[in-house]
Amino acid sequence: MSAPFVQAKNLRRVFDVSKPWLNRVLEGGHLEYLKAVDGVTFDINKGETFALVGESGSGKTTVARMIVGLLPPSSGQVLIDGVSMTDPKQAPARRRLRRRIQMIFQDPYASLNPRFRVDAIIAEPIRAFDLIQGERDIQARVGELLSLVGLHPDDRLKYPHEFSGGQRQRIAIARALASDAEFIVCDEPTSALDVSVQAQILNLMRDLQDKFGLTYMFISHNLAVVRHMATRVGVMYLGRIVEIAEGRELFARPRMPYTKMLLGAVPDLAMSGRQRIPVKGEIPNPIDPPPGCAFNPRCPLAFDLCRKETPQLIDGVACHAVNTAPVPA
Amino acid sequence: MSEAVVPHKAEEPLARGAAQTGWFKRAVESDLFYSFRRSKITMIAAAITLLFFLLAVFASLLAVQNPFDPAQLQLLNSRISPLWTADGQSPFLLGTDEQGRDVLSAILYGLRISLLVGILGVVLSGALGILLGLTAGYFGGAVDGLIMRVADVQLSFPAILIALLINGIAKSLLGNKLDEMSMLGVLVLAIGLSFWVQYARTVRGSVMVEKNKDYVAAAQLIGLPAPVIMLRHVLPNTMGPILVIATINLALAIITEATLSFLGSGMPETMPSLGTLIRIGNNYLFAGEWWIVAFPGLALAILILSINLLGDWLRDALNPKLR
């Protein structure tokens, strides 16, 4: 098998959250940095759906923005189809690559320009990459894309405010497909929608994946959605990937205590009465993370080593308890 | 868990129907037009403002003489009181001044100068302010710091002082070469350079909100250059507040021009604006020739009031929190 389609190598992103210079001088205080993402590495193969799950503030969205190139990483690199998203020398190759990468955003009320008509929104990538010449052909393509996502071709003459949240997300998907994208990063595409509409959007995305062989990177905090969509799942905690596994494997046999806790928090309708690990505590402040494994204050299995040393991702799990000693199931 | 995800069920109702609506119909059905129709004062103010604009545009057709042309003025006709008084003479409806200039004609032509200076001043200050505000808001950092500090410094001087300063510099540079038209240009420049700060601050604020929205990220994603994103995506979404400021600033610009002219550093008497007319008339007020100052003053006051009322309405109508 050739190299993976998307490779994230040791991605790190640090934000400067210090007070302004003048305040630091007058009030005292020092530079403060927030490690949003720290050493994230993963591969995505062509045609698969890679999901990143985690609580709010775990750095999922930051990873997504670095992958598509909206945010430069502090260190590490992203390779898509062998082209670096950061190397200035590969800028021409990156320009050609850009057409093939698209993103679907969380809030469909903010991701469509309210002053643009739907046809202008969808046709913008077509025009930007000069894919189709002639206004008539562009309009025909826009109508085709709208029917593809389950809207009517005449909807292209309306404005975004005339649509519901689910319909807007369909428009966003149509825009993402407009440039014949192959890799689509979906940043919580359904979390702003109500449950009945979520399912329709997810099914639409799966249908489109089958039809066009799309590769998805799927960001979500909703495990039910991830289970429905993902072929492979990475679990993030405080800027690090703590467990990475095949989707089915992860849901059947979670290994990292944090993953177990997350899965334990998912409500189930069957009332199976299964044992759950209750969620305790909250995600720590990323400006001042606990020493060692960031999860140790909440972890039921934590021991001395966890408070001293940050665990490395070995065999898909970053956990001292799992990696050093066999854990009683 | 997967039970929560319903496979292909009812599709969402498709949005269809009246897809093609003309811009005129949309304008008539808009919230803005609705609130316009509900406010009598606004409608009157709009009508008066429109009337003044029409009077200014068609001044040469309406006036009995061209007050800027000395050949048409006759000293014999000087200081005639308005038509309805005992000494009134035809065609001078509002009387004449000491040079035999018909006051009504002078007002019509003066209105033209005042509105021209006001509008050009607003356009200049708006263009400057929007450009600087967009740049500051979009790029942030040191660029933002530099532009906004300049704005802060400028804001600590009254606008009229800056206008006077620019005027004084222009006069000392150009001296006698300063004819009527270049004086008009200097006034526009003075007003433009003293009113840009408000635009810049407002635009910067809106841009900082808008640029973090996902539609801007979506535009960056397809590799559009920053100027295109700023002008095509960000700017149109900040137009509401700009429109309000422009309307209110039009009134302010006209007043500033009138003030400068009244103080003698604005339009000369050979090509008077409303402010110049008031200054001329002021000299005759206590000699009993009240009409020379009263009518230009009244015209200016009504114009400013109407524009300000329009601006107030626009501000309220575009601010969803006040609805």
TrEMBL record, chain A:
- Keyword list, A-Z: ATP-binding, Nucleotide-binding, Transport
Q: Does the keyword Transport apply?
A: yes
Primary localisation category: membrane
| Mode of membrane association | Peripheral membrane protein
Classification via Gene3D superfamilies:
P-loop containing nucleotide triphosphate hydrolases (3.40.50.300)
Cellular compartment(s): Cell inner membrane
Locate the transmembrane regions by residue number: none
* ABC transporter domain residues: 12-263
Kindly give the CDD domains that the UniProt entry links to this protein. ABC_NikE_OppD_transporters
From the Swiss-Prot or TrEMBL record, what is one GO molecular function term?
ATP binding
Q: Does the keyword Transport apply?
A: yes
| Pfam (any one) | ABC_tran
Q: NCBIfam families given for it?
A: oligo_HPY (TIGR01727)
Q: Which PANTHER family match?
A: D,D-DIPEPTIDE TRANSPORT ATP-BINDING PROTEIN DDPF-RELATED, TRANSPORT ATP-BINDING PROTEIN
Family in the record: Belongs to the ABC transporter superfamily.
Main function: Involved in beta-(1-->2)glucan export. Transmembrane domains (TMD) form a pore in the inner membrane and the ATP-binding domain (NBD) is responsible for energy generation.
Q: What is this protein called?
A: ABC transporter ATP-binding protein
Which organism does this sequence originate in? Bradyrhizobium iriomotense
Automatic annotation (TrEMBL), chain B:
Location of the ABC transmembrane type-1 domain: 111-311
| Entry keyword Transmembrane helix | yes
Alphabetized, the UniProt keywords read:
Cell membrane, Membrane, Transmembrane, Transmembrane helix, Transport
Annotated localization: Cell membrane
Pfam families of this UniProt entry? BPD_transp_1 (PF00528), OppC_N (PF12911)
Q: Which domain of life is it from?
A: Bacteria
Matching entries from CDD domains are given as:
TM_PBP2 (cd06261)
Q: Provide the membrane topology annotation.
A: Multi-pass membrane protein
Q: Where are the transmembrane segments?
A: 41-64, 115-140, 146-169, 181-200, 215-235, 242-263, 290-314
Q: Its principal location?
A: membrane
- Similarity-based family: Belongs to the binding-protein-dependent transport system permease family.
PANTHER family recorded: ABC TRANSPORTER PERMEASE PROTEIN (PTHR43386:SF26), OLIGOPEPTIDE TRANSPORT SYSTEM PERMEASE PROTEIN APPC (PTHR43386)
Name of the molecule in the record: ABC transporter permease
Q: Which organism is it from?
A: Bradyrhizobium iriomotense
